[in-house]
């Protein structure tokens, strides 16, 4: 009997210990629900207007954030473009400056070389005048004459021995013009010799009439020459010539279609 009582008391103690946590969790859940109900204004339901208002506020906040990010990116891009444009401008200015300096150095070098060449030529020939004029006088054959001989030659020609501002080379050129042999030119014609019979102007040995036919330049019209007996007056009457001309015209048409000219007046056809 005592053993049965002890077993019964042990089983009852186990059941009590198992039911105690359940009651504790139930009390916690009830307390949480009561807190939520108190937070929602004493109601366990939420209005749809409140949910929509919260959604709109969240949407507007997101849109403002996206707009600020977009404006910041646009500002950064504009600054980057301005910096790139400024860098390109600096590069172009630098290239132009280097090009100008190079051209200036080249011109200066050429000028120095030309002066050195003239100096060497003056030292070699012992002349004091302009070297270019001396070269030309040597080509003309008058540079071999000294000043006294030039004065004597001019006096023989009854010419002034010196003109105002005239150098020795220019004096030699003047002597050469006065004493040199002129090139053969056709004799001038008088007005009467220039007149030609107007009836003989239009005679043309070519196969077709050349020139303007509507103002009376030609004696006969092209159609009259076309039907002249025993002669071929038109170039297209020959079959071989016609084929050659047609092939050339096709080539020209293809060329101006493939590579049109810059001037529209040059287009054929």
From TrEMBL:
A GO CC term attached to the entry: U2-type post-spliceosomal complex
Source taxon at top rank: Eukaryota
Keyword Nucleus recorded: yes
Subcellular location: Nucleus
GO-annotated biological processes: generation of catalytic spliceosome for second transesterification step
Location of the Pre-mRNA processing factor 4 (PRP4)-like domain: 151-178
Family: Belongs to the PRP18 family.
Alphabetical list of PANTHER family matching this protein: PRE-MRNA SPLICING FACTOR-RELATED, PRE-MRNA-SPLICING FACTOR 18
Protein name stated in the entry: Pre-mRNA-splicing factor 18
């Amino acid at each position: 009997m005592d053993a049965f009582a002890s077993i019964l008391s042990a089983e009852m103690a186990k059941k009590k210990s198992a039911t105690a946590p359940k009651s504790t969790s139930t009390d916690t859940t009830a307390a949480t629900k009561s807190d939520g109900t108190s937070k929602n204004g004493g109601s366990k339901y939420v209005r749809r207007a409140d949910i929509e208002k919260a959604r709109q506020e969240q949407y507007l906040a997101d849109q403002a954030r996206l707009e600020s990010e977009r404006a910041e990116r646009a500002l950064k891009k504009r600054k980057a473009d301005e910096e790139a444009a400024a860098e390109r401008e600096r590069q172009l200015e630098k290239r132009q400056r280097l090009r100008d300096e190079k051209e200036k150095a080249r011109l200066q070098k050429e000028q120095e070389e030309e002066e050195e060449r003239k100096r060497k030529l003056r030292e070699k020939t012992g002349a004091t005048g302009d070297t270019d004029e001396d070269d030309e006088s040597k080509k003309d054959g008058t540079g071999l004459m000294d000043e006294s001989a030039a004065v004597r030659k001019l006096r023989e020609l009854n010419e002034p021995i010196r003109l105002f501002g005239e150098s020795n080379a220019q004096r030699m050129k003047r002597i050469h013009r006065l004493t040199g042999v002129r090139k053969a030119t056709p004799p001038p014609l008088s007005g009467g010799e220039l007149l030609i019979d107007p009836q003989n102007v239009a005679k043309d040995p070519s196969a077709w009439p050349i020139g303007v036919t509507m103002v009376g330049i030609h004696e006969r019209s092209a159609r009259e020459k076309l039907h002249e007996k025993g002669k071929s007056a038109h170039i297209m009457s020959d079959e071989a010539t016609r084929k050659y001309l047609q092939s050339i015209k096709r080539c020209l048409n293809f060329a101006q279609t493939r590579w049109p000219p810059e001037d529209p007046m040059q287009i054929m056809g």
